[in-house]
Design goal:
- The chain has 10 helices and 12 strands.
- It has one domain: Rossmann fold (3-Layer(aba) Sandwich), CATH 3.40.50.720.
- The chain starts with a strand and ends in an 8-residue tail after the last helix.
- Helix 1 links the parallel strand 1 and strand 2.
- Belongs to the dTDP-4-dehydrorhamnose reductase family.
- It comes from Micromonospora nigra.
- Pathway: Carbohydrate biosynthesis; dTDP-L-rhamnose biosynthesis.
- This is dTDP-4-dehydrorhamnose reductase.
Length: 292
């Protein structure tokens, strides 16, 4: 029986991973929340990984703007701690599935980034996550899997979808940027794909390396906000387009975060579904953000 460790098990993605894994009696799953496992503690990581065949790391520093002023702290979690996990996996002959981000890319493309596109982060958060990616590929060349995701939303944590619906109850109109392009991705769908990738790795069907775990299609934050309003039964005309310079943030955001998904086919897995159908499925599941 495969023994799987999920780190960051109390977060948005971690909780969805546990929900997906709950239906797998063929797996022995260990769930480690941040309180139970500090991944920046190398000794604790080494002890936690022992006895497991696969580790899925859903633990991360996710405050993009906060990373600008606390880069060392962010990189300690997103980079150095991932190296701890990779070394422990190498020692204990385990596979590592590491969740990364589109922010390792420069964001200046006009067509979807392939998995082997050159990296060039535009902010501190991206630099820290890239350090984590390199730790996985350098220390686990035969057993390390990096899955980049983007624009993640879900039922168990703060996210853009929940924010739009909260603001809809407070304001007559919302101004939302229309010059950043990406792929909204439901954390439950990503969790399902991470588990499928782990299965394919165990079966020897999935080569190690970088995969892109975002939904198909593309939109802007403005386009996503309008779709959220539609699904919630609200008037999408209340959402108005604007530009990023109207909302300056500490961390620069990539203008284009659309990712290609070619590597899934080689692992015998389809790309993630289109972002619109996935968002509709998320609303149909009646998570806490749904507006009656």
């Amino acid at each position: 029986m495969t023994r799987l460790l999920v780190t960051g098990a109390g977060g948005m993605l971690g909780r969805d991973l546990l929900a997906v894994l709950a239906d797998r009696p063929d797996l022995t799953v260990t769930a480690a929340t941040r309180a139970e496992l500090d991944i920046t503690d190398a000794d604790a990581v080494h002890a936690a990984v022992a006895g497991h065949d696969t580790v899925v790391n859903a633990a991360a520093w996710t405050d993009v703007d906060g990373a600008e002023t606390h880069e060392d702290a962010a990189t300690a979690v997103n980079g150095t701690a991932v190296a701890h996990l990779a070394r422990a996996c190498a020692t204990h002959h385990a596979r590592l599935v590491q969740v990364s981000t589109d922010y390792v890319l420069p964001g200046d493309a006009t067509t979807p980034y392939p998995e082997d596109a050159p990296t060039a982060p535009v902010n501190a958060y991206g630099r820290g996550k890239l350090a984590g990616e390199r730790a996985v590929t350098d220390l686990l060349p035969d057993a390390g899997y990096v899955v980049r995701t983007a624009w993640l939303y879900g039922a168990h944590g703060p996210n853009f979808v929940a924010t739009m619906l909260r603001l809809a109850g407070q304001r007559d109109h919302l101004d939302v940027v229309d010059d950043q392009h990406g792929q909204p991705t439901w954390s439950r769908t990503l969790a399902e794909r991470l588990v499928a990738l782990a299965d394919a790795a165990v079966a020897g069907r999935a080569a190690p390396g970088v995969y892109h775990g975002t939904c198909a299609g593309e939109t802007t934050w403005y386009g996503l906000a309008r779709e959220v309003f539609e699904l919630a039964g609200l008037d999408p005309q209340r959402v108005r387009p604007t530009t990023s310079d109207r909302f300056p943030r500490p961390a620069l955001r990539p203008a284009y975060s659309v990712l290609g998904h070619d590597r899934w086919a080689a692992a015998g897995l389809p790309p993630l579904p289109h972002w619109r159908s996935t968002l509709a499925a998320a609303f149909a599941s009646a998570p806490p953000w749904k507006v009656a």
